[in-house]
Amino acid sequence: MTDTDFARRSAEINDLLCVLNLLAWDARTQMPPGGSATRGQQSATISALARERVLAPAFEAAAHAALDTPDAPAARQALSAVAALRRVPEALTRELATLKSEAQDAWVTAKAASDFAAFAPALTRMVTLNRELADALGYEDHPYDALLNLYEPGLTLKTLLPLFDRLRAHHVALLSRITAQPAPRTDFLRRSYPAAGQKAYSLSAAQRFGYDLGRGRLDESAHPFEISFTRNDVRITTRVQEHFLSGALFGTLHETGHAMYEQGVDPALTRTVLASDLVGLYAVGGASYGTHESQSRLWENRIGRSRAYWEQHYADLQATFPEQLADVDADTFHRAVNEVRPSLIRVEADELTYDLHIMLRVDLERALIGGELDVRDLPAAWNARVKADLGLDVPDDARGVLQDIHWSSGMFGSFPTYTVGNVMASQFFGAAQAAHPELDSQLERGEYAPLREWLTDNIYRHGRTFTPDELLRRVTGRPLDPQPYLDYLTGKYSDLYALAPQEAHP
Amino acid sequence: MTDTDFARRSAEINDLLCVLNLLAWDARTQMPPGGSATRGQQSATISALARERVLAPAFEAAAHAALDTPDAPAARQALSAVAALRRVPEALTRELATLKSEAQDAWVTAKAASDFAAFAPALTRMVTLNRELADALGYEDHPYDALLNLYEPGLTLKTLLPLFDRLRAHHVALLSRITAQPAPRTDFLRRSYPAAGQKAYSLSAAQRFGYDLGRGRLDESAHPFEISFTRNDVRITTRVQEHFLSGALFGTLHETGHAMYEQGVDPALTRTVLASDLVGLYAVGGASYGTHESQSRLWENRIGRSRAYWEQHYADLQATFPEQLADVDADTFHRAVNEVRPSLIRVEADELTYDLHIMLRVDLERALIGGELDVRDLPAAWNARVKADLGLDVPDDARGVLQDIHWSSGMFGSFPTYTVGNVMASQFFGAAQAAHPELDSQLERGEYAPLREWLTDNIYRHGRTFTPDELLRRVTGRPLDPQPYLDYLTGKYSDLYALAPQEAHP
């Protein structure tokens, strides 16, 4: 970026967003408990300064002046973000921030007591304010589209719902075929695995994929996440549980996918609008939540849970935990970490049922925002849907409607991006295979650099230059298309569970 | 503080300074190496915003309006800081920031090669810019006073030099009496002490003194330090060396003294000017560098190296390191950690020779700033003074004039505060003893809360409400006075080294 007023103002704004990210990372990984109230005030101050700088008339003028320069893509995004932020009344922004903190407290209490009624008033207010936010932002067909657009620019229910209908029909059918088969052995995943070994192995696997520790680090946190302060400092966290090996292992590979996306953004985009979410006030290099999730899923599931991966690297894991894995071979391990089993908790779900968890949340949250579902009827609707899709009875709200933090944080419209990410991952991986016929044999030899470099060239380096739809079409020649993902799942589980061939899948 | 425009603006500025501190803490303890350039830009952005907010006409107007309110002390300090900052041209501030980064790089290289000539050009420029800074800030007698005032408000060479003359004469004489005696046994301090045990013991000692881990944490760093982001989050670091037990142990107690000062500031001062250094652009609750150092020295030396402390707590240390300390009793340990031995390196010096290291630096740096000493003559002047005061030959510049980071960071005028802190520590401790005749017997029982509470009531809670001189006079009834410190040292070492009584000390 040339040294213009637009570049200087963009750099200052990006600095503030990186600082906001650091304040959040520190609060979640390092900060002593006493620091929380004043940390909230510090974040609010930086957030207000960032918002003030984005909305400054001089920034808009500088962006206008940059429309005829090579910085035009950044300038257009800046102007669109300014317009969006300006449509949201400052009072609503403040109300949402205040409610978020109250609603999270109420949710924590309600979840601990498994008492939905204790959360209902805050959630009702949160739905109302998010509906107001949607009205302020504007939409064509459904208020949910305005919220979805905050996480997945350009995506609407009109595109999403038919796609989800296909996925749900496919997944439910495939699930019933799988659950008719014998379950694989998984007992050994719940043996005692000391934390140090889990972390060391996970980190070495992350580095093997190409996560650069010269510009990154791994910490522990209650909920794993990835966060960046420019491409030069991209951190991940994991949650280590002594008796659940898969948690830290695949959690780390998941965050590694996010992290390599951020580390792969073109250095020329550092401190620009194209590494900033100016509406969400968040420093991020990835094009959208869904695009980001496509990379975490790709590295976690497509690579990390593949047969080829475990044929290559199981010996290392066994060397780390020789006693725990003495009676387990690579094939048994690979089958175990790919077990499909309907469960109540989203974050513990397998690759197939995960989408069912997502889709039920999306249907419920869009009904809440659309006014078709009342908060008081939410637990019953939740439980009915879990029974219908997963065949399970929800024993209490803690393991049901209260399990996720998202709604208490005011994040309506973010759930779809998890499944959209799965869909995109298969599209991107297919394009990589088409471009590199030797890709599969490289992966079978444990060579990850060619794949990572292809992803960097085609996706990562562009940062937020393109919308998710533009990026998909550039890289795959197609819009969002579930077929490669359905083919992948069908093929994978037909193999793992020795399913009889079908005439055609739905 | 009441909810006024002055309070709101002060809170925003303090938030920015706390964020600056967090950026610095993270860079020194957590950040991967690749993050350093963009971190520098992030810090520069926040620093510029803080400066802009302090210099905003509206802040000055708000402070003026607060002069007739209970916030008058904060308002007066704000106005004085605004005036000082305004006297410094922005171009000079920028030049100093740029030079600081260059000079530190040059110093690192020069120190590694023990080649003063490689550092001389950057140091020459640093002296020139600091002289310009002194001229901009203004002074009465000597430009050094303007710089000293940045760290120790109100202190001038006129007060400092006679005090240092007394100290130097006393210390040199006492040192020659001590070195005539047999040296204590110290070999065991350099045995192998695993890091985990060192950290665990040091942290438990810090908590025993009263460091609140609910509002703090201990990390490792190359150079130990304490830093705070309001009194609610006060962090310390230590440097653990396997073969040097005293390093982490007393280093942690030292930083604990700093940290308890910050944790003890009145909550009413949180996010106010009285917890902010508006000239240094640094969030800090202590009144000055010297006042702060008085507390680190008091807890490290007066308490942590006392006979009473080791009589109480040596058993715990021995239990942590049973093999390493099997042949060492409490008395032997106490003597070892109080050994006086002239050495080349300031940060490894004992309590007595430490001041000699400081005084030689102060004499040299004030001569540099005053134009009486040329940078090219500095190494010779350094070596001559080490020979005169410590009786040692300096083998190379790395162990001589290049050993400290301060001058490469542009910190001229901060060295005196280490010795000033020692002097104040004895004055404050004497006042505590006078107020609490039972204090010594409490300490002999390992009861630290009464001392900490007295220090909190009389010093910590006031934050930056008083100048160091005002605070000293309020608490001890006297200005800066070296006599209690000289009496303490003479008494302590006469006992430890069985010195013959003197007619009178110099």
Automatic annotation (TrEMBL), chains A, B:
GO molecular function (one): carboxypeptidase activity
Top EC class, one word: hydrolase
Which EC number(s) are documented for this chain? Answer: 3.4.17.19
Protein's UniProt keywords contain Hydrolase: yes
Task: Check the record and name the InterPro entries matching this protein.
Answer: Peptidase_M32_Taq
- Reactions this protein catalyses: Release of a C-terminal amino acid with broad specificity, except for -Pro
| Assigned keywords, A-Z | Carboxypeptidase, Hydrolase, Metal-binding, Metalloprotease, Protease
Q: What does this protein do?
A: Broad specificity carboxypetidase that releases amino acids sequentially from the C-terminus, including neutral, aromatic, polar and basic residues.
- Protein family: Belongs to the peptidase M32 family.
Recorded protein name is Metal-dependent carboxypeptidase
Organism in which the protein naturally occurs:
Deinococcus rufus
